[in-house]
Structures are given as structure tokens and as C-alpha cells.
Write a structure and sequence with these properties.
It is built from seven helices and six strands, in the order βαβαβαβααββαα. The protein is an alpha/beta fold. A three-stranded parallel β-sheet has the order 1-2-3, covered by helices on one side. A three-stranded parallel β-sheet has the order 4-5-6. β1, α1 and β2 form a beta-alpha-beta unit. The protein is globular.
Amino acid sequence: MLGGTFDPVHVGHVVAATEARWSLRLDVVLLVVAGDPWQKRGHVVAAAEDRLALARAAVEDVDGVEASSVEVDRAAPSVTADTLEELAAPGREFFLLLGADAVANMPTWRRLEETRDLATIVVIERAGDAHAEPPGAGWRFERLSIPRLDVSSSDVRARLAAGRPVDGLVPPAVVREIRARRLYTDD
């Protein structure tokens, strides 16, 4: 599970998902789009349904990676432990894919202690990133190194707002969907 606001999704997200799937031999990686990202209220630009559509477009032709609406469909704030419990099934094992910045933010999560028992944390590290550590004892924890791609959702939004191209930074299907939905521009 790779969760996030995906505002918008970009090639770094897709690379992280595909590399994790291959390296960890996972059946599937879910891009879980935050419906109500309570820690980012007031900072999310696109509506949850639009961000979900972009995530679906990003992975429509990517084997073993799917966009999930589980948090978008929920009427409550997006909480990782709630999502893991909702997706749980007998014999299902979860790997929670997190960047170093997200791991550093974990102490602020709601239901953090319950999350520890629900998933293995996989810290996705890019060349040059500081090593992140779990937020305490008892966590199942792995590291995964991926290629460094210096792309961020905030940079993509800024480029779009300025009328600059984002080709190569986001998958082509996402570029088309952003244009069709007239997202991230003042038009």
C-alpha cells in the first residue's frame, strides 16, 4: 500500500510502486488516495474524486499496481490503521510503503500503535536521502532503495499553474486527465 494525497500523482509515485512490487515480490501495490487527508487540510488543491481519477490514469497500464478508492469512499478522515483494517482479509499481509519524510511524520499519526501491528513498514529511500527510522520499538521494518527522481507534486502544480509543460514528470494519461478536468490552473 502506497498512500498519499497524489495531488497530482507523478512518475516518482509510479516508480516507487513498481520497484516495491518487484523487489518485495508483492502480488499488488495499491495507490491509496487520501479522501480527507486531515494533516493536509487547506493544502490539498484537487478534489478527492479528481485525484483518484488521476491515480487510476497513472496506473491503468501498469501491471500489478492499482488505484484504490477505499479512503475516498470513507466519510471519515483518512487514517492508515482504519484503511489497513478495512482491507484486511485472512492470509493477507500488508507492506506500507513510505518515503523518509512520511516516516519522520509517523509520530503525529492517529492510531499509530494499532498501525504497528497491521503492516510492515517499507521505507523507500532515494540516493542522498537521510535514513529514516521507525517511530519506536516493535515495528516490522524494511528499506527499499529506488532511483532518485527529483519530482514533486508541488513542483508539478507550480509548473501547471505557470503554464509550463509537465510531460515526462507525470504519466501521459495523467497529463490528458489533468487537461480534461482543467486542474491546477487558474483557467
